[in-house]
Amino acid sequence: MSIDNLKSAMPDYAKDxxxxxSGLANEEGLTDQQxxxxxxxxxxxxxxxxxxxxxxxxxxxxLSAEAVDAAKAAAAxxxxxxxYYRFTHMATSKDYINMPAKLRMNVIGNPxxxxxxxxxxxxxxxxxxxxxxxxxxxxxxxxxxxxSKDHIQAAVRIGAVMNSVASVLNAxx
Length: 173
Fold this sequence. Notes:
This protein is mainly α. The chain has helices spanning 2-9, 15-25, 32-46, 49-59, 65-90, 106-109, 115-129, 132-145, 149-172.
């Protein structure tokens, strides 16, 4: 199992990371599609080839081909949106917030999977990328849908741990 490969790759100094991988892999509050789509989108967002490969092997047992593509799309679209919207938020001139983005984002409206699952994955990737505007926007949609704070937090925890795993793998070369 590829989660086991990732855990085995964690050195002693990353014992907490190893334990967190296990805990999140066994997270029961999210559906399998929500959980494993989040793992995959967040792994892709790190850009770490080994992490992506290991998680991809794992998610194929849980996700349809459409969900795999949607997780990839969440990572791709948030890579663009998080930069753009973080800029509009951080720029001294607030004029940019009121300007049309003029960026294509059709996949957000038609992701090929349940929109709430896609929003959850987008939120986790946005948290990894530190885009407050995107975090707020995705969280608002999830809150409106009735998703619990615990489930939202679980997705962000997955993003945090995938980021940490990538950092350790990069450091260990």
